[in-house]
């Protein structure tokens, strides 16, 4: 009996102790309470009294968000005082979306409902949407925005260079630079900040406006000289005289550059890079692109817990968003080392490019918010079928072709795959008609890596194919096809002799039955249909400089020279494959 | 040997301090747990949406006409260059008042407010509060339902 | 009567109101005499299931180890915390998970209370199982307690049902896939009906699943059903059965004790408060009620007033349970995984630990593991009191022919058998690995689970013959099944990894 009473006494006291501890921990030891105490101590004395230690949150029912981030990040809490310069309590940078209206997690990721740092930032197990690392913060835009008409890197660079060369930064600010004419002086900057000009409805008529100002200034000066009062339209400003006409080509480049400025510095550049090195040739995003590689539409939303990885790109222990960026970075460095059996080649990127691509991958996080909340660009891209990238030749080529055919059409060779043809080869372009190129792009090479871009889902539209053809000519040095008076089918040699010659001269590279090997496959329905006899004939006769395909009409010590009749016989032999099918 | 009857109270035992303290501490622990649990129903955060919202006043809004943003209990007015906002939640018992030509009428208990929100009639104890408004340019304003301003405070466009 | 007097009376009544209130609440006055203590017990709606006097044998720790009271304490804790959680929980798929997150992060004391609820649920399951083992090993199921043993069996099933239905409510990955598996176990009679080719006309499996889920898949319908079961139907059933269980304990003569219990508890010594004089009438109620009451035929020196002695013991068991719950809740958070994703199963998708033994069996055959063998076990357990009609060893730990030695040997045999069968199946695989075209009915009938059950049954039969006693067979069988359950649970918990493969430790799991 005594023992029972002792048991009761001590378990009761123990329970009381545990309850006391729990109450203490609940009311005094929670992370956010300690942080808020620090915050209150650092507040100006007159604000301390009105500060109440309590949970804070931003609720956005439409986004199903209840973000308690502001419980600790009090500088961003509506109604609390920001402590400028502080890592935790500082104000939110001035962005186009008010955090009080949109919440935090919609852009930054993380676990808005959590009130513990590790959980909130997503650095824990069982939370698949970690915070986007600060370095790549603008990747969050990708949750809703797709952006439109992003050009390739070269166009962007050209526009930026011209923007700077024409001294626009004297009056305008751009991504934190410029406005140097009168930085913060009386009356502020002369020109508007252009950081997000593309996102606010870009007006390409600005140049005309500038020139009108110039005219006005001149007229005003004349007016003043004539003894009149103020010039029309207000006071003439001294800088208005500094405008000068800009050449049309430069203007176009600057237009492209300015149109791409949506207030997410770095993200557009990263996206431009993605659309300059041919990634969509294999990967599709939102249904646009090839299907050799995995779909990347939600690549930035991958669950770090499923990556089997616990370190960042620098090999430092990391979880959550840092683990995901680390995975992506390592993957770009050497795909096969991260994904066993990955078919993706090492594309020879610089560390800077890898970082940009990682950034862009992180931005691929299309959320499933109701369509009514989508921004215009996403509606236009996903519902009206507008492209998320520019549809000029260079960007299209950079988007679809560059990975395999090389950024300059020089062809590519990756370990484990057959070589990809150098399509900018002048010898090739000289005999390949535009129609041949169009057909090739449209119908691809069945059975080979080249997809039928004009026929497949997510491929190219007819006018886009035309633009790509023009771009191929452009990177080939402007070589046009020689006009060919002969009909498409004229070869009428002796097929049997052709077969013998083929076996001797061609089979070692193109395969005994034209199935391809070191050289391209010749027994290919689309190739044989699209290529005229002249194309085949001339290719054999003149070869392709810079490739293994020699000019068989030229004398050579290592193989026999082919006469025109012999070549015609080979062409006839090749044509027999077409008949067979 | 003093036989005590079952009906007679026992003399106060000397040695049952242990039993008493054990039972008492058990009851105290359970009581404490119960009180702790009673804290749970009082929510620490309320699931109400942000009380700050952005509103676009239509160009066509006439001087002195109320503009009620959809889903909000707020009336915005423009008089000349001045813009101000008033809560339309009756200070009596929380019904939504209806803007009229003369001011506001409450449908529930007959309170009536003037154009500036002051109580004219009925049980309402206080005037309708004026709310903080910030101009964002181009007829856009940021209204904060959580912050009242003195009656008559306007924002200049 | 003058006016002043009426006023005086009123004031007097007003003054006396608190005292009279107390008197009316405690009708028998302060429990300072044996009689007032008795009336305190039987005059109180919450206490009247207790006997007025308790045998001292019942108060020995080793008689019950307090397991029954611990079980009911854990249930009361889950009841209190569960009601609290209902303030915030919303049983709809799109908000349930967020509700749990809110309970974890922002509800005052929410996280602690959810942890307590979770741990109390686990403790309840453990205590109920151990309580059953205690009742079995002390042969407490024997006449006249056969029916209470069966009620206890149903209570065990309801307890497991409560645990299982609570599992879905957080709507996380763990929940979703555990319930998907559970629902398909409910559907597994199809394994047999398919083999017999009669699913089209007779499909109890499909009906069970449909009733459980209200749909083809685990979704909003399933969630609301599980919620209803968890917070309403099963608790009501449990409370009613607990009442019956308690009532029967009294009516069946209190806790079992050996015939010579009076002698063995010895001299009462100085217990306070102690028995004062010979009772005038201890069985005035028992005279009109059939059966035996606690005090009949026993010397008064062996019994003590339930108030306060039994209450000390009960409170001690309660507070110990509370203490353990609180301690675990402070140390270990209740798990919450990712939001349920019907597209990506957990790998491995594990049920709660108390079902992992079953899951191990299910991995051999869904029907046999999930329904067949559990049914055999439950029916077998329920039959024990009707097969064992012996009297030797009642109220004694491991009482009966063979005794502790038999139990020890049976434990050894049970462990050896389950380990042998498991190692064989893990190492060599089973029929399908050797004969791809094996018909399903063969695997349903012959799989490691059924083989193990058969081995245990044969062993038990051998014991019945050897000792010439059903109690000996029951002791052996029960011990074997207990060992099997423990070993299978351990294997399922710690040694099964992705794709239900065998791994010595989670450290060897392939990169997930």
Question: Separation of termini of chain A?
Answer: 100 Å
Shape of chain A: flat
Silhouette of chain C: globular
The share of residues in extended strands of chain C comes to under 5%
- Helical segment tally of chain A? 24
What does this structure look like?
The complex is a heterotrimer of chains A (581), B (157) and C (512). Chain A is mainly α and 581 residues long. In chain A, 40% of the residues lie in helices and 2% in strands. Chain A is built from 24 helices and 6 strands. Chain A has helices spanning 2-28, 31-42, 45-48, 99-102, 105-108, 117-120, 153-165, 206-225, 248-259, 267-274, 320-333, 335-338, 351-362, 376-382, 393-400, 402-405, 426-431, 434-443, 462-475, 495-505, 507-510, 525-530, 533-542, 564-580; strands at residues 58-60, 65-67, 173-174, 177-178, 284-285, 288-289. In chain A, a hairpin with a 2-residue loop joins strand 5 (284-285) and strand 6. Chain B has 157 residues and is of the alpha+beta class. In chain B, strands 1, 2, 3, 8, 9 and 10 form a 6-stranded antiparallel β-sheet that branches. In chain B, strands 4-5-6-7 form a 4-stranded antiparallel β-sheet, with no helix packed on it. The mean pLDDT of chain B is 85. The termini of chain C are far apart. Chain C is an all-alpha fold and 512 residues long. Chain C has a two-stranded antiparallel ribbon. Residues 277-289 and 291-298 of chain C have low confidence and may be disordered. The interface between A and B is medium-sized, with 29 and 25 residues.
């Amino acid at each position: 009996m005594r023992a029972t009473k002792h048991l009761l006494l001590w378990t009761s006291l123990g329970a009381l102790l545990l309850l006391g501890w729990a109450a203490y921990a609940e009311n005094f030891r929670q992370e956010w309470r300690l942080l808020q105490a620090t915050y209150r101590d650092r507040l100006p004395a007159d604000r301390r009294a009105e500060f109440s230690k309590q949970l804070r949150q931003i609720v956005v029912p439409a986004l199903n968000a209840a973000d308690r981030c502001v419980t600790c990040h009090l500088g961003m809490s509506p109604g609390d005082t920001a402590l400028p310069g502080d890592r935790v309590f500082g104000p939110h940078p001035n962005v186009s979306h008010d955090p009080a209206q949109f919440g935090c997690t919609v852009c930054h990721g993380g676990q808005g409902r959590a009130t513990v740092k590790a959980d909130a930032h997503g650095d824990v197990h069982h939370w698949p949407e970690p915070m986007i690392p600060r370095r790549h913060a603008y990747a969050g835009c990708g949750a809703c925005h797709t952006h439109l008409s992003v050009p390739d890197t070269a166009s962007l660079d050209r526009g930026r260079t011209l923007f700077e060369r024409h001294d626009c930064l004297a009056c305008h600010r751009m991504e934190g630079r410029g406005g140097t004419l009168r930085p913060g002086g009386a009356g502020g900057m002369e020109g508007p900040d252009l950081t997000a000009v593309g996102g606010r409805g870009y007006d390409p008529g600005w140049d005309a406006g500038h020139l009108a100002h110039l005219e006005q200034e001149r007229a005003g000066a004349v007016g003043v000289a004539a003894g009149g009062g103020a010039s029309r339209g207000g006071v003439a400003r001294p800088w208005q005289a500094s405008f000068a006409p800009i050449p049309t080509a430069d203007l176009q480049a600057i237009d492209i550059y300015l149109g791409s400025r949506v207030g997410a510095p770095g993200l557009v550049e990263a996206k431009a890079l993605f659309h300059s090195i041919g990634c969509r040739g294999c990967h599709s995003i939102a249904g646009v692109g090839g299907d050799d590689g995995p779909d990347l539409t939600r690549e930035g939303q991958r669950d770090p817990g499923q990556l089997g990885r616990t370190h960042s790109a620098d090999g430092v222990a990391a979880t959550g968003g840092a683990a995901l960026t680390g995975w992506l970075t390592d993957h770009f460095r050497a795909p096969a080392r991260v994904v066993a059996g990955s078919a993706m080649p090492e594309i020879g990127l610089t560390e800077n490019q890898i970082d940009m691509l990682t950034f862009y991958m992180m931005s691929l996080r299309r959320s499933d918010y109701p369509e009514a909340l989508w921004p215009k660009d996403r509606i236009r891209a996903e519902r009206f079928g507008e492209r998320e990238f520019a549809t000029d030749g260079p960007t299209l080529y950079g988007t679809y072709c560059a990975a395999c055919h090389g950024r300059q059409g020089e062809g590519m060779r990756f370990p484990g795959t057959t070589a990809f043809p150098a399509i900018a080869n002048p010898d090739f372009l000289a005999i390949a008609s535009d129609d041949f190129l169009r057909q090739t792009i449209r119908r691809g090479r069945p059975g080979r890596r080249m997809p039928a871009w004009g026929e497949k889902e997510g491929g190219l539209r007819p006018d886009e194919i035309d633009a790509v053809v023009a771009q191929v000519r452009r990177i080939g040095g402007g070589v046009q096809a020689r006009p060919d008076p002969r009909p498409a089918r004229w070869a009428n040699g002796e097929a049997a002799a052709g077969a013998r010659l083929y076996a001797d001269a061609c089979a070692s590279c193109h395969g005994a039955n034209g199935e391809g090997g070191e050289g391209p496959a010749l027994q290919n329905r689309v190739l044989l249909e699209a290529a005229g006899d002249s194309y085949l004939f001339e290719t054999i006769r003149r070869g392709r400089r810079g490739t293994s395909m020699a000019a068989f009409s030229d004398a050579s010590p290592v193989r026999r020279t082919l006469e025109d009749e012999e070549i015609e016989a080979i062409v006839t032999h090749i044509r027999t494959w077409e008949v067979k099918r | 040997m003093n036989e005590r009857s079952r009906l007679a109270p026992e003399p106060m035992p000397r040695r049952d301090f242990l039993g008493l303290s054990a039972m008492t501490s058990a009851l105290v622990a359970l009581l404490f747990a119960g009180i702790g649990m009673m804290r749970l129903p009082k929510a620490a955060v309320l699931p109400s949406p942000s009380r700050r919202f952005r509103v676009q006043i239509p160009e066509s809004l006439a001087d002195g006409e109320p503009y009620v943003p959809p889903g909000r209990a707020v009336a915005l007015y423009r008089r000349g260059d001045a813009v101000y906002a008033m809560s339309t939640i009756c200070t009596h018992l929380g019904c939504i008042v209806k803007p009229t030509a003369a001011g506001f009428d409450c449908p529930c208990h007959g309170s009536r407010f003037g154009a500036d929100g002051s109580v004219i009639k009925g049980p309402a104890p206080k005037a309708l509060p004026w709310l903080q408004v910030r101009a964002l340019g181009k007829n856009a304003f940021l209204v904060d339902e959580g912050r009242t301003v003195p009656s008559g405070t306007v924002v200049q466009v | 009567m003058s006016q002043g007097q009426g006023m005086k009376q009123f004031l007097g009544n007003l003054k006396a109101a608190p005292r009279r209130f107390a008197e009316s609440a405690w009708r028998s006055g302060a429990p300072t005499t044996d009689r007032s203590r008795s009336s305190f017990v039987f005059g109180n709606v919450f206490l009247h299931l207790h006997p007025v006097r308790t045998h001292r044998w019942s108060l020995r720790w080793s008689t019950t180890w307090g397991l029954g009271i611990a079980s009911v304490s854990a249930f009361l804790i889950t009841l209190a915390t569960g009601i609290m959680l209902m303030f915030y929980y919303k049983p709809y798929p799109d908000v349930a998970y967020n509700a749990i997150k809110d309970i974890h992060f922002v509800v005052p004391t929410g996280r602690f209370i959810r942890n307590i609820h979770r741990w109390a649920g686990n403790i309840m399951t453990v205590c109920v199982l151990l309580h059953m083992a205690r009742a079995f090993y002390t042969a407490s199921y024997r006449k006249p307690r056969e029916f209470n043993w069966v009620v206890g069996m149903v209570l065990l099933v309801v307890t497991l049902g409560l645990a299982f239905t609570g599992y879905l409510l957080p709507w996380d990955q763990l929940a979703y896939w555990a319930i998907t598996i559970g629902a398909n176990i409910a559907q597994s009679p199809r394994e047999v009906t398919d083999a017999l080719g009669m699913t089209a006309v007779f499909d109890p499996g499909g009906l069970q699943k449909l009733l459980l889920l209200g749909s083809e898949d685990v979704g909003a319908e399933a969630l609301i059903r599980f919620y209803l079961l968890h917070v309403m139907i099963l608790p009501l059933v449990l409370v009613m059965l607990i009442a019956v269980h308690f009532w029967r304990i009294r009516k069946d003569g209190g806790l079992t004790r050996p015939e010579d219990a009076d002698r063995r508890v010895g001299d009462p010594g100085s217990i306070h408060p102690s028995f004062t004089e010979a009772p005038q009438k201890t069985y005035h109620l028992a005279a009109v009620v059939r059966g035996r009451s606690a005090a009949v035929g026993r010397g008064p020196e062996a019994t003590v007033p339930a108030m306060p002695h039994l209450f000390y013991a009960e409170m001690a068991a309660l507070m110990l349970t509370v203490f353990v719950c609180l301690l675990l809740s402070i140390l270990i958070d209740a798990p919450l995984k990712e939001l349920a994703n019907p597209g990506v199963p957990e790998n491995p998708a594990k049920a709660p630990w108390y079902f992992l033994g079953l899951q191990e069996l299910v991995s051999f055959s869904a029907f046999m593991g999930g329904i067949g063998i559990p049914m055999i076990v439950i029916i077998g357990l329920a039959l024990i009191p009707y097969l064992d009609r012996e009297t030797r060893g009642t109220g004694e730990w491991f009482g009966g022919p063979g005794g502790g030695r038999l139990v020890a040997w049976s434990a050894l045999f049970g462990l050896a058998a389950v380990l042998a069968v498991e190692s064989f199946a893990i190492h060599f695989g089973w029929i399908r690995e050797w004969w791809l075209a094996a018909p399903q009915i063969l695997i349903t009938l012959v799989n490691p689970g059924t083989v193990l059950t058969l081995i245990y049954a044969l062993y038990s039969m051998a014991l019945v013959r050897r000792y010439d006693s059903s109690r000996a067979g029951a002791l052996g069988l029960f011990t074997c099944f207990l060992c099997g359950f423990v070993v299978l649970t351990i294997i399922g918990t710690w040694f099964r990894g992705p794709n239900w493969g065998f791994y010595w430790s989670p450290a060897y799991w392939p990169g997930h």
